[in-house]
Amino acid sequence: MPYRSYDLISSTTNCAPPAAVYPGGGGNTGGGGGSTTPNPPGDYDPCDNGPVAVTSFRSSQRYPILGVPPSDCDPDVPNNPPTLPPNDYLNAFQRLIGELGITDQTEVQFLQDNGNVFVALNNYLNANNWSQDSKDFGRWAVGYLNENRNITWLEFSTHFIYNTPQYKLDTYIRNKYPKFSSIADGLVFFLATNPKVVAALSKYSGFSKNEIMELASNGSGPNIKLSNESWTIIANGAFNAKISENTIFLAEDNVKMFENNFLDARTKYSLAFSLMVTILHETVHYGRFQNGMPDPITNPDFGTKFEELGFGFNVEFKLNQPVIYKMYFIQ
């Protein structure tokens, strides 16, 4: 087998070593929480039953490799780097860098220095079958965490992966329209991977970019209600503080049409995008009310101004002329 050189980073004897995790290829997923260590008796021998020295090495290409060497307590342990297991970790690391298109060496170094972030992201991508949306989110996450070193992975994942979505849907909507519910729940990931849209939303809603992402992750955003009544709906949706200060109304007919299976893929994709943009459009009006900003119905419609700045055009869905929009990572 080929010879590789390795640089010793650290060596620490742990009498209760963690299980080694080698991500990639559908392997074991990384666990989250900590563990408890009982108080040992006075005659406890830390070298009994072979405690393991956990050592971190890097290859000559500077990629991290996780190695579990023989125990420091074993007799005649050689004073050289251990025999490493197969390169699962190295291969997974290189795959993640390539799939996410990470070329900034500071971001590569960040992942090298924070193996827990790499393992967690790798598990997240595996769980989502390396879909384009999950890769876009992963790419954004690396940049965000690299620029905000004070934020731990636990804090980040709590906000952006495991928390309640921004827009609140009642049980009726979730039970009757599960496909539409997935659109509303997925807006947090769309916003996380589309900073140009967030910037436009910030400009016209009055919320800061941080406030938008905070809303998108802790469930403090507006409620979504469905209606076909003319007093609540203008075209595809509406926000009217005189009816409710914390509710966005959407046309139920559009949601019902999306939920049914008779639409061709092109039309359904366009309608899904239109529904998503309608929610964000009405969030502009919701934000302007919450932030005490003027909001005339027309001339200008600030929701439309948001669409033009965030997407480059006014999004309008018509059944016979559906809008086609390919989701992409907007810089």
Tell me about this structure.
With 331 residues, the chain is of the alpha/beta class. It has 2 domains: 6-160, no CATH class; 168-311, no CATH class. The chain contains 12 helices and 7 strands. It has helices at 88-100, 105-113, 115-127, 132-147, 153-160, 171-176, 178-192, 195-205, 209-218, 252-259, 265-290, 302-311; strands at residues 6-14, 52-59, 64-67, 168-169, 223-227, 237-238, 247-251. It has a 4-stranded mixed beta sheet. The chain has a 3-stranded antiparallel beta sheet with strand order 1-2-3. Helix 7 (178-192) packs across helix 11 (265-290), helix 8 (195-205) packs antiparallel against helix 12 (302-311) and helix 11 (265-290) crosses helix 12. The longest helix is centred in the C-terminal third of the chain and has 26 residues, at 265-290. It starts with 5 loop residues before the first strand and ends in a 20-residue tail after the last helix. Mean pLDDT is 70; it is low at 1-86 and 324-331.
Quick tags:
331 residues; alpha/beta; disordered C terminus; 44% helix; single chain; 11% strand; disordered N terminus; 3-stranded antiparallel beta sheet; 4-stranded mixed beta sheet; globular
Q: What is this entry, summarized?
A:
The chain is of the alpha/beta class. 44% of the residues lie in helices and 11% in strands. Residues 1-86 and 324-331 have low confidence and may be disordered.
